[in-house]
Amino acid sequence: MNDAADEDLHAPVLPGHGASDYERYLRTDELLSLQRPPEERVHHDELLFQTVHQSSELWLKLGTTEVDEAAARLERDEVASAIRLMRRAVLCLQYVTTQLEMLNQMSPWEYHQIRVVLGHGSGFDSPGFRRVPAVTQRVSRGFDRVLERAGLSLPQLYTHGREHEELYQLAELLTEWDERIWVWRFRHYTIVARALGEETIGTQGTPVQVLGKLIAQRQIPKLWDLRSRLVELFDAEQRGSAA
Ligand code: HEM
Fold first, then answer.
1. pTM, whole model, 2 decimals?
2. Beta-bridge mates of residue 201
3. Nearest Cα to Cα of residue 180 among 69, 101, 87, 103
4. Fewest CB within a 10 Å sphere: which of 187, 193, 211, 239?
5. Distance between Cα 171 and ligand 1 center (Å)
């Protein structure tokens, strides 16, 4: 028998804590101790509440890291690989939005018991969301750069999309990233309204209604202004061909 056959494939070989390499590599002991244990919970639903928030932070960490890396690749003119990363980032925002649904499973009355232990804790201090504007601005600048190198304006890219397929796909992914932030904000707002009502003041003093106003914010406004510009361009072209 050779050495490989002798090897016990169930025995951990990695350094660290945990009975198996799975637990050691993923550090599941630490991860699963990051939620309050049953004896410290003020309400049974605290596990649900912490799970949604903590997993949102993880997906946002991944999503914003990918956008940042996509920006770095655009700075080196690596458009195709930036596209792949943007696709992942968009999926991260989809997951973060979908899991908001779980919060509707808490009753508003029961949520109040959890709310009292949040201190001044507020989503405004979410590390994941706080990273979103900076990485979005960086990738938007990277996009401007590749467009400039291709000698194209944004309307030209959209009116001749098939001739610049890769750049068009990139522009649409940036639009989708921005759209997903918008959709998340809307969904978060309705969940907050359902849990707290629209008249309430948040844990950091922000009226819930202000969250409604934030829905109108766009991270990359030029991608949205472009749509209106295309309407004008199309109308002008129609008038020209009718004349
Ligand atoms: C029942 C669940 C939730 C309630 C009642 C709630 C409530 C609120 C309230 C009242 C605010 C306004 C700021 C303040 O606290 O004064 C806020 C903001 C915010 N919350 Fe939540 N939230 C919930 C779930 C979540 C989740 C799961 C996340 C994900 C990380 C999140 C992220 C944020 C962010 C990023 C903001 C800043 C607003 C923005 O940029 O649009 N919230 N939330």
1. 0.94
2. 207
3. 87
4. 239
5. 29
Predicted confidence at residue 127, as pLDDT, reads 98
pLDDT attached to residue 179: 98
The answer to whether the CB of 177 falls within 8 A of the CB of 89 is: yes
- The 8-class DSSP code of residue 60 comes to H
For residue 153, the model assigns a pLDDT of 97
8 Å CB contact between 170 and 143? yes
- For ligand 1, the distance from its centroid to the CA atom of residue 44, given in whole angstroms, is 20
Within the chain, all domains assigned CATH 1.20.58.480 are found at 44-242
Q: What pairs with residue 207 in β-bridges?
A: 201
Tens of pLDDT, residues 165-194: 999 999 999 999 999 999 999 999 999 999
Distance CA 205, CA 213 (A): 15
Ligand 1 neighbours (beta carbon < 6 A) = 52-53, 56, 100, 103, 111, 122-124, 126, 129, 185, 188, 191-192, 195-196, 202-206, 208, 211, 214
Q: How far is the CA of 32 from the centre of ligand 1 (A)?
A: 23
Q: What is the pLDDT of residue 5?
A: 67
The more confidently predicted of residues 203 and 39 is 39
Over residues 100-158, the pLDDT tens digits come to: 999 999 999 999 999 999 999 999 999 999 999 999 999 999 999 999 999 999 999 99
Architecture label for domain 44-242: Up-down Bundle (1.20)
What is the number of the ligand 1 atom nearest to the C-alpha of 217? 41
